[in-house]
Structures are given as C-alpha cells and as structure tokens.
Amino acid sequence: MKKTRICNILKIRYPVLQGGMLWLADANLAAAVSNAGALGVISPYAGMQINGDPMDNLKSQIEKVGEMTKKPFGVNIPLDLRQSGLLLDVCLTQGVKIVITAAGNPAQYTKLLQGEGALVMHVVSSVKQAKKAQECEVDAIIVEGVESAGHIGFDELPLFSLIPQVVDNVHIPVIAAGGIVDVRGVVAAFSLGAQGVQMGTRFVAVDENIAHKNYKDAIIKAQDSDTVVTSRKVVPTRSLKTEFSMRLMEMERSGSSEKDISDFIGYRRSFTCQLEGKLDKGEAFAGTSAGMIDDIVPASVVIQRLVEGYSDVVDRLAES
Ligand SMILES: Cc1cc2nc3c(=O)[nH]c(=O)nc-3n(C[C@H](O)[C@H](O)[C@H](O)COP(=O)(O)O)c2cc1C
Q1: pTM of this prediction exceeds 0.85
Q2: Which of 101, 182, 200, 316 is spaced 20 to 30 A from 82 at the CA atom?
Q3: Could you give the domains of the chain?
Q4: CA-22 nearest atom, ligand 1
Q5: SS3 for 105-144, per residue?
C-alpha cells in the first residue's frame, strides 16, 4: 500500500489507524493492529470493570501494550470525559508518544503534550474545527464523517464532501474516518486528499476485540440501512437500529428534554450493551460501514486484505 506522510510522522508501515473505542480498544487489540503494521490505539476504559478506575486501567493497558509490541501505538482521550485531564497526566507520566484527542478543544492540552515529546492528533468533523485544530498546531487531524460509529459532529457532514473541503483549508495531514472497511474506501479517501484512514466498526468485529459476541454478530448481520443517528439534542450518535435506539428516536420525536434523553442513555450503559451483549440496554455504536462487514477475523487479516487488495483497485481505476 502507498506510503504517505502519515507513515513517516507516526513511523508506521501502512497509513491505517484503528479508531479509539471507549470500552473496547484495549492493549490486546492495539498490539495486534500495531504488530500488523498499522497504528493500534488504546482507550481509557477498555479492559476495566464497570466501576473501575480509568486512570489505573489506562496505566496498566499502556504497560501491557508495551510488553506486547515494540511498534508505535496511540492513546485516545475524549476531552469530554470528566477525568480527561487526569487521563492525559497518565499519558504524560507513561511517556505515551502518540495521543489522539477528541470531543473538545485542542487548545487545552496540545502544547503540553508536545512539550513532553508526544505527537498530537485531534478528531474533527467540520472545516471550522479542522482550522481551529491546525491553529493549535496539532500534528494531524482525523476527519470523521456522518457515516462514523458513535459520537458524530453536530453538522452531520458526509465524508465524501467533507474531506476535500478540509484538505483545501489546512496544510497538516488529514486522516479520513467513517464508513471505511475495505481497500475501495481507502483508495477513495486518498483520492479525496486524505493521507490515512481510521476504521472503528471493522475493528469491533475482529477476534481480538473484547466486545460481546451478540454485538459482533449484530454488526455482521447489519445491512446498509441498519444504523441510525439518535440523540441529536445531546450528542448525535450513530448506532445499530435496536430497541434501545428506536426508543431514543421516539423520545426525540415526542419532544423529551435533553436531561431525560441523557438519563435514558445513562452513564456507562454502553458497557452493558457492548460488553455484556444486552443490545436493548445501551448504545451499540456502529458506522454505516457495518453493512460491508460480514465476518469476524483476526485484526491482522483486516490489514492484510487492505494491503493485498490495494494494487488491484488502483489498476482497475487505471483501466476504467
Ligand atoms: C464501539 C465504538 C466506540 C467508539 N468510541 C470512541 C471514542 O471513545 N473516542 C473516539 O474518538 N472515537 C470513538 N469511536 C469512533 C472511532 O474511533 C472511529 O472514528 C469511527 O468508528 C469510524 O467510523 P467507522 O466505524 O465507520 O469505521 C468509537 C467507535 C466505536 C465503533
């Protein structure tokens, strides 16, 4: 696969990132992805019990990944988490070299992290946010389209038109996320001007992911129209269509307050859904990409398929 600026900056072989996944992206998954030549990413709650201590958990996951791979890995910190400052302290004390911030203002911590030798990437979902992140001197941005799993931007902009507009407005490298599963998506993202891709849902349905089988199976079964965006008043979120997300839709339609919707979503209820497999009890995050996923394979196979398929797709483009 083509080497891009992102490969040089992150010191990885392939310009592919495994997306942060709050409860799911643990050391085991991140190491499997990094060992396959892409960038594995750890999330702070992944691997802990529902009432665990995120700071202790993150520290032990970072130590663990360091034992499982000598390749680069990243840590994803959503800045809207109550403990985000403490979690970033853990990254600093553990000497994490790549930090991916999301859901907040990159002005807060970028300089501090870079001052300690970390590369910082920030997740954005509009041109305005991309320009702001560049002003804060982040090293790269991850641009998430409306197709993405989990929390998406309030403007709900599709990746196909968002990427070109972002790359026309910034000079730092851009990584595309949302709806990408196979090499066709990678080549499309590159042709729009991205220099890397990030995938989330594809890395839920892999052997190394600790997600419950019910959740993985539901992703495999999902077709093109089986995800839905809910919680537009609180934080727009893409998940599988389940009894839970349908109930959320109904609450929004009938004018429920933000507080009632937030209470229904619940604190840590996605744990119950994603790790205990009770799909009707919490949000089963999934991108529109779910419709293209039909097997559970090792993470290395996901990367291998991208690498092996790349020249075929590029050759086909040249012929057409
Ligand atoms: C289960 C799950 C949890 C996620 N949690 C986070 C998170 O904590 N932080 C974050 O920045 N993105 C999170 N995401 C988004 C992914 O990192 C990624 O950008 C997104 O899934 C890309 O879209 P795709 O799923 O269509 O590949 C999550 C995605 C999934 C599937």
Answers
A1: yes
A2: 200
A3: 5-210+297-319 (3.20.20.70), 213-288 (no CATH)
A4: 8
A5: CCCCCHHHHHHCCCEEEEEECCHHHHHHHHHCCCCEEEEE
